[in-house]
Design brief:
With 321 residues, the protein is α/β, with parallel strands linked by helices. The chain has a single domain (1-321), classed as P-loop containing nucleotide triphosphate hydrolases (Rossmann fold), CATH 3.40.50. It has helices at residues 17-30, 32-42, 50-62, 67-84, 92-104, 131-144, 161-172, 184-198, 215-231, 249-262, 280-287, 309-317, and strands spanning 119-124, 149-152, 175-177, 202-205, 238-244, 266-270, 292-296, 304-306. It has an eight-stranded mixed beta sheet with strand order 3-2-4-1-5-6-7-8, sandwiched between helices. Helix 1 (17-30) crosses helix 12 and helix 2 (32-42) packs antiparallel against helix 3. It is elongated and about 65 Å long. 45% of the residues are buried.
């Protein structure tokens, strides 16, 4: 077994105005692909008419919102326009913001990791979604909340996955539990036991990425969840699915498959850094609503933040924060 010894946990940090502004700017830049299209549509002037709705529909669908969520948003928007007697195209921006908040607001449920000790978070997702990187960033965030963290290197399939997690452990000064060999369940079992003995607040358990179409691998990850429950009967307390925002509607398929297998309790949407369109959050809200705990906009340690629906919509539509 390998581990890095954890240094003292920092006290809960208060975010400065500059840090908040920096995050908003990065989020806005990350959503600019869709945001610029919407800004162009609403800034042309003219009246609200069927042609305007049709152009908006096209933008939403190409932004990965999906047909069902797009139809819901447009129907709600038309009602809003009638009720408020809106006429000008530029007035539609605030109306869309209102309708988006109704759709996305229920997903903005923060993670509370203080309800159990240790609080065990099982991290899952397909290969390449940014799972291990998200673990490193999440460890930093939890430390900023005054919580002690331990990492479990349960991705025993991908080459160098253990070493990657250990690097994140060193950067965050947290313990990493790993083995030279052995399966994921055994590694995570050891980590939960170690966390109990050392009175650690949170265990972040990495698992191997897998395609949802690989039935034997999905069965294997179910086993990992069962083994965690053997050492701590009410664990895992959170099953976080990491999604790459660039995968569009395929992300919705991943949500459905992983939720059916494991009972996903929260989502992390990564790589909202300029190439993603951002609309998949709306598709998930409509078709399979699960709380979006965090979103990520880059590779830095501080580039993962709790999902705030109003903040997200303001950044997308270029509204004042």
């Amino acid at each position: 077994m390998f581990s890095f010894l954890k240094k003292s946990t920092p006290a809960k940090a208060e975010e400065t105005v500059a840090e908040k502004r920096s995050w908003i700017d990065r989020l806005k830049a990350g959503l600019s692909r869709t945001g610029n299209q919407l800004a162009d549509l609403f800034s042309r002037g003219g009246k609200i008419d069927d042609d305007l709705y049709e152009e908006l529909e096209t933008i939403l669908i190409t932004a990965d919102v999906g047909m069902d969520a797009t139809n819901t948003l447009l129907a709600d928007l038309r009602r809003h326009v009638r009720e408020h007697k809106l006429v000008e195209a530029e007035e539609l921006k605030a109306g869309l913001a209102h309708c988006l908040l109704k759709l996305l607001g229920p997903l903005a449920v923060p993670l509370h990791a203080e309800t159990h000790k240790p609080f065990v978070i099982m991290m899952v997702g397909v290969n390449g979604a940014g799972k291990t990187t998200s673990i490193g960033k999440l460890a930093k965030y939890l430390q900023s909340q005054g919580l002690s963290v331990m990492l479990a290197a349960g991705d025993t399939f991908r080459a160098a996955a253990r070493e990657q997690l250990m690097t994140w452990g060193e950067r965050n000064n947290v313990t990493v539990i790993a083995q030279q060999s052995g399966d994921a369940a055994a590694v995570i079992y050891d980590a939960v036991q170690a966390a109990q003995a050392r009175k650690i607040d949170v265990v972040l358990a990495d698992t191997a990425g897998r395609l949802t179409t690989q039935a034997h691998l999905m069965e294997e990850i179910k086993k990992v969840k069962r083994v965690i429950a053997k050492v701590l009967p009410d664990a895992p307390h959170e099953v976080l699915l990491v999604l790459d925002a660039n995968t569009g509607q395929n992300a919705l398929s991943q949500v459905k498959a992983f939720d059916a297998a494991l009972g996903v309790t929260g989502l992390i949407l990564t790589k909202l850094d300029g190439t993603a369109k951002g609309g998949v959050i709306a598709a998930i809200a409509k078709a399979h609503p699960i709380p979006v705990r965090f979103i990520g906009v880059g590779e830095g340690l501080d580039d993962l933040r709790p999902f705030d629906a109003q903040e997200f919509i303001d950044a997308l539509l270029g509204l004042s924060a």
